[in-house]
């Protein structure tokens, strides 16, 4: 999911709060697994950069209850959602508003910095990683989430429309993504070798690991709702890249009165993988 920062002043992240929170919950198994990779750490201060509504930040607070965890985002509406979530879950969470990446210089350094699917929204991705690395205390760890596998929710053949809708949505998303990257201010072309980029930012002990999110059918109500909101977003964003048949298929999937729609299908599932890249700032 692409999220979390006001890199585009025309984009209303607050309107996406429900989608971001529901999707964060649906994908939460990968966060739990990734944090298990960090269980040997004893961080005193943790930053979640581009926290959105705080799903991962609250998980960090649960995992490291002795740490001071701060959710950092450019959208005050999303930070308010993060505080509400922390209150419901009974975890300690601070919030701080800061634009990404220019606002990072105003943050205090941390022993652990987490940032999920934020860097690719910035024109100069290497510069963004350099700034994230500078937030680390000596010996501190940076974990960034970028890449993985496309999400799948539906059978190849839905029983209507042309089979293979999700593959065509992937292709349309790729075209839309490339245009987004091209139009970002200060875009710098770079080979998206995330481990190599972390090393270029001065980090050592760099490694990557992918984590599976496997929620078989039938989905629970909140995960099902996240699929609906995501497909609504795809219908809105990708219309120019889809033909009339696929647009009609999406409309039928999103029809709340249709038994074959996502609100009612017994075969709706969630399958994806997220890749987390880890690096450590050398000791002084």
Automatic annotation (TrEMBL):
Residues covered by the Methyltransferase domain: 46-140
Record flagged with keyword Coiled coil: no
GO molecular function: methyltransferase activity
Lineage: superkingdom: Bacteria
Keywords: Methyltransferase, Transferase
Matches recorded under SUPFAM superfamilies: S-adenosyl-L-methionine-dependent methyltransferases
GO biological process: antibiotic biosynthetic process; methylation
InterPro entries, per the entry: Methyltransf_25, SAM-dependent_MTases_sf
PANTHER family for this protein: TRANS-ACONITATE 2-METHYLTRANSFERASE, TRANS-ACONITATE 2-METHYLTRANSFERASE-RELATED
Record-given protein name: Methyltransferase domain-containing protein
């Amino acid at each position: 999911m692409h999220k979390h920062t006001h890199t585009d002043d025309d984009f209303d992240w607050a309107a996406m709060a429900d989608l971001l929170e529901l999707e964060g919950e649906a994908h939460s198994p990968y966060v739990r697994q990734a944090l298990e990779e960090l269980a040997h750490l004893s961080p005193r201060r943790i930053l979640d950069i581009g926290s959105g509504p705080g799903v991962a930040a609250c998980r960090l607070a649960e995992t490291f209850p002795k740490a001071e965890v701060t959710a950092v985002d450019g959208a005050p509406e999303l930070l308010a959602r993060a505080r509400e979530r922390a209150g419901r879950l009974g975890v300690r969470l601070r919030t701080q508003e800061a634009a990404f990446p220019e606002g990072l210089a105003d943050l205090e350094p941390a022993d652990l910095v987490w940032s999920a699917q934020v860097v690719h929204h910035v024109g100069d991705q290497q510069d963004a990683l350099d700034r994230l690395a500078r937030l680390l205390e000596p010996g501190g760890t940076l974990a960034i989430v970028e890449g993985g596998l496309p999400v799948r929710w539906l059978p190849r053949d839905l029983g209507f429309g042309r089979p293979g809708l999700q593959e065509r949505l992937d292709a349309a998303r790729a075209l839309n993504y490339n245009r987004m990257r091209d139009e970002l201010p200060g875009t710098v072309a770079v080979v998206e070798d995330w481990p190599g980029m972390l090393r270029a930012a001065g980090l050592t002990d760099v490694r990557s690991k992918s984590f599976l999110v496997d929620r078989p059918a039938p989905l629970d109500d909140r995960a099902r709702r996240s699929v609906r909101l995501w497909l609504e977003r795809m219908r809105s964003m990708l219309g120019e890249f889809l033909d009339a048949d696929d647009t009609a298929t999406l409309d039928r999937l999103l029809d709340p009165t249709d038994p074959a729609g996502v609100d009612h299908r017994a075969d709706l599932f969630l399958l994806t993988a997220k890749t987390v890249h880890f690096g450590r700032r050398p000791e002084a």
